[in-house]
């Protein structure tokens, strides 16, 4: 059974640009959540999608957005990139996002903003 | 707001020895889950162990066990018979019941297992 796949693994952008990251969950999983990991702020929850609907959102500005497709694949978008957006972006999937359910993480996309 | 505190930024243990990683948390909620995740150099977060707050019995998974003290809001991880493959960052995390997939993480403890 394939794990959670995130593409691309590495990305370099410049300030002001926008970026789209992709996440393919484990087959059969309908919940996809996103996390940002930085040395300064640690791991922070961005948002969670289930059946194409955003169910939960963290404290990030509106430049951070996401969506989920009918096949449960998810994308997140960051517009007007800032230097502080440089981070490892992790995606996790689970069957339906029930509290306490095991989350399966991908290996992340490392975004560098120059 | 919920907070998770890991007071040990780095720890080292010899192979085959036992090590305990500390974690405390703060919440006013009564229904929640606690987790320990491991992040090796591959960057992929891997669930080590999970504890339901309503269960008094401490969770165990092979060489990994927890000491859950609900009143003290403490959730430590004990690794027995440490192996070189246990070298990684370990994160303590917290999830309130009803908040789908929203984990609050601690700052992590870097564990080095040596020969």
Give an overview of the whole structure:
Chain A contains no helices and 11 strands. By secondary structure, chain A is mainly beta. In chain A, the strands form 2 sheets. In chain A, strands 2, 4, 5, 6, 9, 10 and 11 form a 7-stranded mixed sheet that branches. In chain A, strands 1-3-8-7 form a 4-stranded antiparallel sheet, with no helix packed on it. Chain A is globular and about 35 Å long. Chain B is built from no helices and 12 strands. In chain B, the strands form 3 sheets. In chain B, strands 2, 5, 6, 10, 11 and 12 form a 6-stranded mixed sheet that branches. A 4-stranded antiparallel sheet of chain B has the order 3-9-8-7, with no helix packed on it. Chain B has a two-stranded antiparallel sheet with strand order 1-4. The termini of chain B are far apart. The mean pLDDT of chain B is 94. At the A-B interface, strand 4, strand 5 and strand 9 of A face strand 6, strand 10 and strand 11 of B.
Summarize this entry quickly.
The complex is a heterodimer of chains A (about 110) and B (about 120). With about 110 residues, chain A is mostly beta strands.
Strands, helices and their partners?
The complex is a heterodimer of chains A (114) and B (115).
Chain A: E1 5-7, E2 10-13, E3 19-24, E4 31-38, E5 42-50, E6 53-57, E7 64-68, E8 74-78, E9 87-94, E10 104-105, E11 109-113
Chain B: E1 3-5, E2 10-14, E3 19-21, E4 24-26, E5 32-39, E6 46-52, E7 60-61, E8 64-69, E9 74-79, E10 88-96, E11 104-105, E12 109-114
Parallel strand pairs in B: 2-12
Antiparallel strand pairs in B: 1-4, 3-9, 5-6, 5-10, 7-8, 8-9, 10-11, 10-12
